[in-house]
Amino acid sequence: MKLLEFSTLRSYFSSHEGRLPLPSVLYHLALPVTSVLVLSWLLMGKGGDAWVADRIYALQGGHWALKRHFVTQQVIHHFGKYLSVLAGITIITLCVVAHRRRSWQSWRRPLLFLSLSVSLSTLLISTLKGMTNTYCPWELARYGGQFPFSGVFEAGMPGFPRGRCFPAGHASAGYAWVSLYFFALATRPRWRWWGLSFGVMAGLVFGIGQQLRGAHFLSHDLWTWLICWLTALGLFWVMFVRGTPLPAVDSPQPSPPSPADLAEPGHFGGQA
Question: Is the pLDDT of residue 235 over 50?
Fold first, then answer.
């Protein structure tokens, strides 16, 4: 398969003196961050999380009836996690093969990016879970548990263990794959929306499954998505925008995109 020559895209960014053009900042950074902050204010600050969880809890008869259900626990939680791990191992294996075979030379950096992005996203989420102090809904007295509600970074109360439910760890096994958007942008730009859709849908399935079990509030999943997105965005900037051009391969390369192509809605340098 032939790759898009990314040196042209890098030249486009260089014309902005190393800065992201305004459309890229707006659509890939400012818009996601602003949206999550506003939604977090509604969910965490104005009681939206409790409103959603109250209704899920009530629909299950005042207890977490789906906590150990076969679909939510075995299929979505356990099998889904193993499937994501298997996908990650597959990508890492392909990355190793690409570094050993000259014919795969132009795939080395895209596959390395995808491997690092997925791994770093899940690692970062796991690390943050150990630093925050938020209980799962099923642990709260409001929903039949034994612990009081505590904010994300509030100090733990004497006599109570530290909460480890923020951000959402299981949802990261799905949302980490939003990096497929940037992987496609580096290889097959027209497929980028399919890549983004796959990551978002996987995260939604994992996240909603955990919310139905009482394992997370909606805001936990929202922040997991943002962290995974920003990890992929930052890594993409380091490896492709500020990095060296992709190596040429022996096979003929497609014509590099023109400035007009780079400004096409959805490209990293244009609207998304």
Answer: yes
Cross-strand pairs, 147: 140
pTM: 0.82
User: Residues in the chain, how many?
Assistant: 272
Using alpha carbons only, what angle is made at residue 178 by residues 83 and 207, rounded to the nearest 5 degrees?
Answer: 60
CB 212 within 8 A of CB 138: no
Residue-wise pLDDT tens digits, 54-77: 999 999 999 999 999 999 999 999
Contact 143, 214 (CB under 8 A): yes
Ramachandran angles phi, psi of 144, nearest 5°: 90, 5
Domain ranges of the chain: 24-154+164-247
